[in-house]
């Protein structure tokens, strides 16, 4: 925050520009103990430059620094410790947060440039898996974070709506399917047909030929095949929309794999033209030996295109359409090789924008230590899981706050928030153990705990301040307020860090710390006591609600006023 810069500036001033402000700012540490002040500058690296012992440099600097925001400067061995003027600084922080409101923590890093983010991207006619849930939740949060950093974000759902499986599905439907059953229960029924196809095909290998034949028809634009394909797609999408509705996630585009069907020829021609394609047993591949990677398969010997062909074409299309600065793919880590290959092929094609492509991988969701599987009809339908979380949340709320008016609305916010937070509190590369009971606890490291803290702070505001008038608030100089203020001051840095790392967990962890800090404050300080700092304390509480609410929003979670 700006205070670090002020401190750095003061130091540079007395160093006759031996180091730049940036260098000094990077060196400044957050001291471990309160008695060491608010910022500490280590003098080790100056010793050589000045040919002087670090502790002597510290003494010298400490005696010279003088700024109204810095109340005291003390040499502590080789360190210069700076103590901020609590009264002035706290007033400034509170004024900033209260005037900026939910814009507090915004950055202009992106300068309005475009970022395309490809996330969720489930497969038509298959269940929405736990992996897709992770992609949805992480991708949605990253979108919010990137937007807060000043980029224009384009959210793309790259639906898995193309590929040989549609040939199988058409064959299976024509043989065993019933329209009404598909309408009633699309995903379940389509999955059932798909599984049945594989069972039957074990004894009747000509079914596979049939399927290839129908997929070819589909690729060539056959009317009947197209109608069936579109119907499967529409029905599946209706089901997925229910999940997106519950999670409150929206997309700018649903252009999935099928969208690129008529655009891949051009890609392949281009690759030929650049002499990048090699034939290998009748198939077209691009060698990536020089990167120690297996070749990227572009076209099979029967002429069919592949997942990678569609991703190459999609990246080119997106660059043309959106001129993105960055394009992120929020997809499980098991697809790392695929993305490495696709990005390198684009690099070989000479596209400098390929440097902006980034795979953002994540780990698995586990149940009792095992990967949750959606295979062979043994499906846990995600919609049911979310609804169960909402029901459990409602039971909790009925116990805790029986008089709450809009219980079911709040239950939705809490149940959904619990699922999202449980995912995002972990670094995304880690595996997550799925447990509804753990997620829904109101204490500990859960979404409901943060939401509850927000609601509690909001209720104090209701009790203490009917005017919501925070003009001319006095600064706060007590140590309890100071610890809260210092953490609130960190919010912009936390956002920048989560942006740089593509890590929503930076924010969720921070929100847990803020909640903890506030709950300690609440237990130690009489916030509503009638003295001349009451309005300042309320301004502090108001600032907490702003930061908690905005932080939760960045994760994709709502903050109810009461719960
Ligand atoms: N549909 C794919 C799957 O479920 C994920 C697609 C990810 N996005 C992409 N552009 N490849 O595995």
Automatic annotation (TrEMBL):
The reaction(s) this protein catalyses: tRNA(Arg) + L-arginine + ATP = L-arginyl-tRNA(Arg) + AMP + diphosphate
EC category: ligase
Ligase listed as a keyword: yes
Domain DALR anticodon binding, chain residue ranges per copy: 450-563
Residue ranges constituting the Arginyl tRNA synthetase N-terminal domain according to the UniProt record: 5-84
Keywords: Aminoacyl-tRNA synthetase, ATP-binding, Cytoplasm, Ligase, Nucleotide-binding, Protein biosynthesis
Gene3D superfamilies reported for this sequence: Arginyl tRNA synthetase N-terminal domain, HUPs, Isoleucyl-tRNA Synthetase, Domain 1
Biological process terms in GO annotation: arginyl-tRNA aminoacylation
GO cellular component: cytoplasm
Motif 'HIGH' region per record, residues: 122-132
EC number: 6.1.1.19
Domain of life: Bacteria
Listed GO MF terms: arginine-tRNA ligase activity; ATP binding
InterPro entries, A to Z: Arg-tRNA-ligase, Arg-tRNA-synth_N, Arg-tRNA-synth_N_sf, ArgRS_core, DALR_anticod-bd, Rossmann-like_a/b/a_fold, tRNAsynth_Ia_anticodon-bd
Localization in the cell: Cytoplasm
Subunit structure: Monomer.
Family note: Belongs to the class-I aminoacyl-tRNA synthetase family.
Name of the protein described by the UniProt record: Arginine--tRNA ligase
Organism for this UniProt entry: Halalkalibacter akibai (strain ATCC 43226 / DSM 21942 / CIP 109018 / JCM 9157 / 1139)
Gene of this entry: argS
């Amino acid at each position: 925050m700006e205070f670090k810069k002020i401190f750095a500036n003061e130091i540079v001033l007395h160093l006759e520009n031996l180091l730049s402000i940036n260098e000094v700012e990077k060196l400044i540490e957050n001291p471990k103990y309160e008695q060491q002040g608010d910022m500490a500058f280590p003098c080790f690296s100056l010793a050589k430059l000045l040919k002087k012992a670090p502790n002597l440099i510290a003494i010298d600097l400490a005696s010279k620094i003088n700024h109204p925001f810095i109340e005291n400067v003390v040499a502590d061995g080789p360190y210069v410790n700076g103590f901020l003027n609590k009264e002035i600084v706290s007033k400034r922080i509170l004024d900033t947060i209260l005037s900026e409101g939910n814009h507090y923590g915004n950055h202009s890093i992106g300068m309005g440039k475009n970022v395309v983010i490809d996330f969720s991207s489930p497969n038509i006619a298959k269940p929405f898996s736990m992996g897709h849930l992770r992609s949805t939740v992480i991708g949605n949060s990253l979108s919010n974070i990137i937007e807060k950093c000043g980029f224009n974000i384009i959210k793309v759902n790259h639906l898995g709506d193309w590929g040989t499986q549609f040939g199988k599905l058409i064959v299976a439907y024509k043989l065993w399917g019933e329209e009404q059953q598909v309408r009633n229960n699309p995903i379940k029924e389509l999955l059932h047909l798909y599984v049945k196809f594989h069972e039957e095909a074990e004894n009747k290998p000509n079914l596979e030929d049939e399927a290839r034949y129908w997929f070819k028809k589909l690729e060539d634009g056959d009317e009947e095949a197209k109608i069936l394909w579109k119907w499967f797609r529409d029905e599946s999408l209706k089901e997925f929309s229910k999940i997106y509705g519950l999670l409150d996630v929206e997309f700018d585009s649903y252009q999935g794999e099928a969208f690129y069907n008529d655009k891949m020829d051009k890609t392949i021609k281009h690759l030929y033209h650049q002499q990048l394609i090699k034939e290998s047993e009748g198939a077209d591949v691009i060698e990536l030996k020089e990167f120690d990677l297996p070749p990227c398969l572009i076209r099979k010997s029967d002429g069919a295109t592949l997942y990678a062909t569609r991703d190459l074409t999609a990246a080119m299309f997106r660059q043309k359409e959106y001129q993105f600065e960055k394009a992120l793919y929020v997809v499980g880590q098991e697809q790392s090789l695929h993305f490495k290959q696709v990005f390198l092929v684009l690099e070989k094609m000479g596209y400098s924008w390929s440097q902006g492509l980034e795979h953002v991988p994540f780990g698995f969701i586990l149940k009792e230590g095992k990967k949750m599987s959606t295979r062979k009809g043994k499906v846990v339908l995600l919609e049911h899981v979310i609804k169960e979380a909402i029901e459990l949340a409602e039971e909790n709320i009925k116990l805790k706050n029986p008089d709450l008016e809009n219980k079911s609305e709040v239950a939705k916010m809490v149940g959904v928030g619990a699922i999202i937070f449980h995912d995002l509190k972990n670094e995304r590369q880690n595996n997550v153990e799925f447990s509804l009971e753990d997620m829904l606890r109101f204490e500990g490291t859960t979404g409901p705990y943060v939401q509850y803290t927000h609601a509690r702070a909001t209720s104090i505001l209701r009790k203490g301040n009917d005017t919501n008038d925070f003009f001319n608030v006095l600064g706060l100089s007590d140590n309890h307020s100071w610890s809260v203020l210092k953490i609130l001051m960190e919010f912009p840095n936390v956002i920048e860090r989560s942006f740089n790392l593509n890590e929503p967990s930076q924010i969720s962890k921070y929100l847990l710390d803020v909640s903890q800090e506030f709950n300690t404050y609440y237990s130690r300080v009489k916030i509503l006591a009638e003295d001349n700092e009451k309005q300042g304390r309320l301004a502090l509480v108001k600032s907490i609600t702003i930061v908690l609410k905005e932080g939760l929003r960045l994760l994709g979670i709502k903050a109810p006023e009461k719960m």
